[in-house]
User: Which sequence fits this backbone?
């Protein structure tokens, strides 16, 4: 038996994907997985130290860690119509002076915001746990916020308006799907990558064939508990690109890399 630590987020798409793998519902081919769940920015920061051999990463973080990690072909959150939203209470925001809550400086959402508003100083971006951004904007603590995950489905509950859908902006600008997050493997574990890719694909296949089996596990970790929100989240973020990046997915990652490298001090 080979023990393997695997880190992923508590968001419904990840718990849906990994439920079968981590609960012995598929043949794990001699692997015993030890899951660690944390928000994606916590995992991004842990990856900077090489903490987990297999981990969820924002694609933006991966670009800075490619000497240490590479993306697996399965398990990614990548697609159309699934980008982060910039929200505010009012529409007249001066981003050069605004206090803007972001879910982490290493998130793809933050990179997209920087690409959209390149003149905004990083000092204006305030790292905030993603689940507290909407309440923070609604209360006036922040002038604007960058919304990811389930937040896109509940913006109206906080009397906030969407200033821009950065996914639509990205798709219009690049004609590519938006690469949000991946499952990455540390390069010293590369001998395992074909098997782990196949196991993740198998876990997704099991989850799709038995969608209700994972629901208690998903609900135990989700920020938004309503079945409708969970279903919409999974439906949006678990798609064909989750099974395999394919040529289109790999092209989207390459485009993101090119745009990141073009940012002044982009790799800082």
Assistant:
């Amino acid at each position: 038996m080979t023990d393997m630590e695997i880190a992923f987020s508590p968001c419904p798409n990840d718990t849906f994907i990994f439920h079968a793998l981590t609960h012995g519902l598929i043949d794990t081919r001699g692997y015993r997985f030890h899951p660690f769940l944390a928000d994606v920015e916590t995992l991004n920061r842990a990856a900077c130290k090489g903490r987990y051999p297999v981990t969820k990463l924002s694609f933006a973080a991966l670009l800075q860690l490619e000497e240490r990690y590479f993306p697996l072909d399965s398990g990614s959150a990548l697609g159309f119509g699934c980008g982060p939203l910039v929200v505010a209470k009012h529409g007249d925001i001066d981003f050069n002076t605004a206090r803007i809550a972001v879910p982490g400086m290493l998130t793809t959402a933050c990179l997209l915001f920087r690409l959209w508003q390149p003149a905004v100083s990083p000092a204006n971006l305030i790292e905030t746990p993603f689940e507290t951004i909407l309440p923070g904007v609604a209360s006036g603590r922040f002038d604007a916020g960058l919304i990811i995950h389930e937040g896109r489905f509940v913006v109206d509950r906080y009397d906030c308006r969407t200033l821009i859908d950065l996914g639509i902006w990205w798709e219009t600008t690049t004609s590519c799907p938006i690469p949000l997050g991946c499952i990455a493997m540390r390069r010293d574990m590369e001998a395992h990558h074909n098997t782990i890719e196949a196991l993740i694909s198998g876990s997704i296949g099991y989850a799709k064939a038995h969608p209700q089996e994972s629901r208690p596990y998903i609900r135990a970790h989700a920020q938004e508990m309503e079945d409708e929100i969970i279903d919409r989240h999974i439906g949006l973020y678990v798609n064909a690109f989750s099974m395999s990046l394919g040529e289109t997915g790999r092209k989207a990652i390459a485009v993101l890399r090119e745009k990141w490298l073009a940012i002044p001090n982009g790799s800082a």
Summary: The chain has a mean pLDDT of 93. The two ends are 40 Å apart (CA to CA). The chain has two domains: 2-79+178-262, 85-174. Residues 85-174 form a domain with the D-Maltodextrin-Binding Protein; domain 2 fold (CATH 3.40.190.10).
